[in-house]
Structures are given as structure tokens and as C-alpha cells.
Amino acid sequence: MELDAILDNLSDEEQIELLELLEEEENYRNTHLLYEFTPYSKQREFIDAGHDYPERCFMAGNQLGKSFTGAAEVAFHLTGRYPGTKGYPADGKYGGEWKGKRFYEPVVFWIGGETNETVTKTTQRILCGRIEENDEPGYGSIPKEDIISWKKSPFFP
Description:
Layout: H1 3-8, H2 12-30, H3 41-49, H4 66-79, H5 116-128, H6 131-134
InterPro entries: P-loop_NTPase
Protein name: Terminase
């Protein structure tokens, strides 16, 4: 059955309810990008190696997912929402159990970079989303409800 035919069979109230549900789902996906992370084999190898090696190097070409892989791993550690645990949704895209390093108590992470600008424009954006566009964090790899408080850097807009 075509979408138009389905919509034609719905009342105005049902169409509005459907639209609201679709918007709610889109908002959930936009604020829970961590659950969309599907590592390819080299990314999974890197994450899994964290079980045995606290320091690792992920070398690859441009735009191949190094930063996002690192941010996803940091987000898993910061939130404790490892794949295969009750904090990770059953329909998450990770594809299997978490085999990397696992923390069982809350952790503190320091994130650094070459300059304040690179941290803000790359690392912070991947972890927290585009704060300048949304006026709040929660649209990156750290799920929105897991960000308790935040403060903009005084060093870079």
C-alpha cells in the first residue's frame, strides 16, 4: 500500500498524531547518536583492543571515522551504556557485545587537542553536537539526558 493511500485513510487527528510521533522519533535519534554507531571491522578491532591495551593508536586516512570512533568509545565509558548492558537499547546498532575496556564506576575524562579551536570544532562537536546551532549540547555521541550540566568555553565561541 502506498504512503498516500495510507495517509488518506487516516483522520486529521490521526495524521497529526502520526506526525508528532515521527517528530519525536527524529528528535530521539538526533539526541542519541551513540546508539546509531555501527563500527566496521577496523573500528571494532580498535575498541576491542582497549580491553588489553590502555594506550592505542588508530591510524587511517582522512574521513574514515577515527574521531567518531574515539568519541563513541569515550561516550560509552562516560555513560556506562555499553552495548549488551541494560543501559544500551536492544535496537542499538553496535552489533554485538562490548569487548573493549569497561569501567564499572563513574570516570572522569580530559579531552585535549592541539588548539582550543580544534577541540571546539572537532572533538566537542562530535561528543556534544553543534552547540552553536542548538544552543545546548546533546546532539553528539553523548546522549542528551546524560549531560547533566555544561558551560561554553571562554576561549572559543
